[in-house]
């Protein structure tokens, strides 16, 4: 049984899967030639390497609602334990195996019981968790980033973003995204997304009197 997706004329759920598939393919291409040492690089997710974060993304593209729920029950509703268990299932024996497993879910539409746009968020945010420590610059369409920012500004599902930006005015300098009222935080749409999702390092790329408050609200990033 799958969770029905909300559909609007502006953002039909079915239009999001091609964006996810494109971002997964771009990430796989960026990681194709990593050395073993690079695969062991700490990601922006606390205590996880870039290889482990990629395995986490593979797990997300492999779990339907029934398997997800079975894992939650098996782990006694310890969601961190569920993440660790599913990551271990998809890590593989070598980095090449890890990347190959990710390659097999690039066009997958399997997901846990969360909105499709949340999977887009996982793909882009965790993609940055991987790319940034490796010095790789992601190239994201502004329309995709704007759609994701619009989702995060009104949601605390999966990632607590709505509460984190409460009382602030966020303004993108490279696109149309704008939300909220209060002290201004401005910067690229990507930097705003990453700060909204708790990546403190991206506050260095933001300007405005609200940056210090947003920085303090960022917590340890986790898969």
Task: Please provide a written account of the structure.
The protein has 223 residues and is mainly α. The protein has two domains: 14-134, no CATH class; 142-217, Nonspecific Lipid-transfer Protein, Chain A. The protein is built from ten helices and three strands; from the N terminus they run H-H-H-H-H-H-H-H-E-E-E-H-H. The protein has helices spanning 17-30, 36-39, 50-60, 65-74, 79-91, 95-103, 116-134, 142-152, 189-196, 211-217; strands at 169-172, 178-180, 184-187. A three-stranded mixed β-sheet has the order 2-1-3. It is globular. Mean pLDDT is 90; it is low at 1-9.
Q: How much is the average pLDDT?
A: 90
Largest sheet: 3 strands, mixed
Return Rg in Å.
17 Å
Question: Strand order of the main beta sheet, please?
Answer: 2-1-3
- What percentage of the residues does DSSP assign to strands (E)? under 5%
Oligomeric composition of the shown chains = single chain
Distance between the termini: 25 Å
What would you call the shape? globular
Instruction: Provide the number of structural domains.
Output: 2
Q: Portion of residues in helices?
A: 40-55%
Q: Could you say which structural class the secondary elements and strand pairing correspond to?
A: mainly alpha
User: How many strands?
Assistant: 3
Tell me the series of helices and strands, N- to C-terminal.
HHHHHHHHEEEHH
In DSSP terms (H or I, runs of 4 or more residues), the helix count works out at 10
* Uncertain runs: 1-9
